[in-house]
Amino acid sequence: MAVVLVVVLAVAGWLAWNARQSIADWISAASFRPEPRITAIVEATTMTPAAERVFLATAPTLDATQGFAADCAGVGVAEGAHVLGCHVSTDDGFLIRDRIHLFEVTDERLAGVVEVSAAHELLHAVWSRLGDAERAALTPVLLAAYQELAATDPGLAERMAVYQEVTDAQFANELHSILGTEVRELPAELEAHYAGFFADRAAIVGMHEGYRAVFDELAARVDALQGELEAIRAEVEARTAVYDESLARLDADIVDFNVRAQTPGGFDSQAAFAAARADLVARSDALQAEREAIQAEIARYDELRAQLEALGAQGAALDASLAPPASVG
Question: Which residue from 86, 211, 226, 251 could staple onto 110, CB 3.0 to 4.6 Å apart?
Fold first, then answer.
C-alpha cells in the first residue's frame, strides 16, 4: 500500500509540475476583476474559455495615456509604426509571468482596432505557453503559409520585412499573431490550432479588414489626387510654354502690322490690310481663350491641392488617434 501511495503521489506531483502554468493562469484569471471594456473585448473576439483564461491571467490593461507608452516602452517598433498593444513577459524557468497592455483607440472610424490588438497580444501569450515540441511543429507550418501568402500580398511581405533580422523562432512568434488575426484563409492545420482560442476567427479578421480599409482608401485617394495634380502641373507648364511663345510671336506680328499700316504701300490693298488685321484679332482671341483655359486648370489644381491637404489632415488625425498624447514637462 505504501508503494502505491508513493506512486500516486509521484504521478500527482508530476502532473502538477507539468500543469503548473495552467494552474497559475487559472488562479490569476479567477482573481482578476476585468472592467466592462475588457469583458466586451473578450466577447467581441470570440475567445474560447481557454483563451479567456490566458487573457485574463495577464491582467490586461487598457490605457490611452502616457501610462501605456511607459508600459510598452521596451517594445521594438518599425519607424513610423504605431504600438497598439504589447505582451511583456518574463520566464523564470518555473512560471511565465506576463502582462498585456492595450492602447485605447476611441476614433469611431477605427472601430475594432483595440479588439484585434487584444487578439494579437493574446496569441503572443499563447505562444509563450506552448511547449517546445508544439512550437517546433507549428513553426514550419507558419513559415510555409507566410511564403505562399507573401507571394501575392506585398503588404504582408513589407510588414514582416522589419522582422527579417530576428531568429526563426521570433519570426514565427510574430507570424503566429499576425496570421491568426489578419488573414482570412489559412491551412487547415493552422485553422484547427486557432480554433482552440477563437470561436469565430473570421470575426477578428473582419474587424482588421474594416479599419485597415480606412487607411487603404485614404492612401488610394491621396495617390489618385497626387497623380492628377502631377498631370495638371505638367499640362499647365507645357501649355503655358506654348502660350508664351505664341504671345511673343503675336506681339512681334502686331508691331510689324502697325509699321506696315503706317507705311505707304505697306499693304497691296485694303482687302489685304483687313485680312491681316482679322488674322491678328483671331489669334489674339484664341490666345485669350487659351489663357483663360490655363487659368481654369490652375484653379482646378489649387482646388485639388486643397483636397489633398484636407486628406493629409485626416491622415494626421487618424495617426494621432493611434498614439498616446505627448507627455507634459
Answer: 211
Position 3 pLDDT exceeds 80: no
What's the pTM?
A: 0.81
Structure-derived torsion over alpha carbons of residues 61, 65, 67, 71, reported in degrees to the nearest 10: 60
Residue appearing with cell numbers 507570424: 175
DSSP, collapsed to helix, strand or coil, labels residue 132 as helix
Contacts of 289 (CB under 8 A, 6+ apart): none
Asked if 250 and 280 touch (Cβ cutoff 8 Å), the reply is yes
Band (169; pLDDT cuts 50, 70, 90): confident
Dihedral sign of CA atoms 169, 173, 176, 182 in order: negative
For 87-115, give the DSSP string.
EEEEE-SS-EEEEEEEE----GGGTTHHH
Determine the Cα–Cα distance for residues 125 and 120; give it in Å rounded to an integer. 9
Angle at 285 between CA 281 and CA 291, to 5 degrees: 145
Q: Are 139 and 172 in contact (CB under 8 A)?
A: yes
CA nearest 63: which of 90, 85, 44?
85
Tell me the mean pLDDT in the region 257-280. Answer: 94
**Contacts of residue 177, Cβ cutoff 8 Å, sequence gap at least 6:** 120, 121, 123, 124, 127
Closest CA to 38 of 82, 83, 85, 81: 85
Question: To 5 degrees, how large is the angle CA 208–CA 323–CA 155?
Answer: 40
d(CA 112, CA 206) in angstroms, rounded, equals: 9
Sheet holding 85-91, edge to edge: 61-63, 96-103, 85-91
User: Among positive and negative, which fits the CA dihedral 182, 183, 184, 188?
Assistant: negative
* Residue 118 near residue 76 (C-beta atoms within 8 A): no
Question: For residues 24 and 96, what is the distance between their CA atoms, to the nearest angstrom?
Answer: 9
Say which residues have a Cβ less than 8 Å from residue 283's Cβ, sequence separation at least 6. Answer: 246, 250, 253
Q: Which residues of 255-285 are buried (b: 16+ CB within 10 A; e: fewer)?
A: eebeeeeeeeeebeeeeeeeebeeebeebee
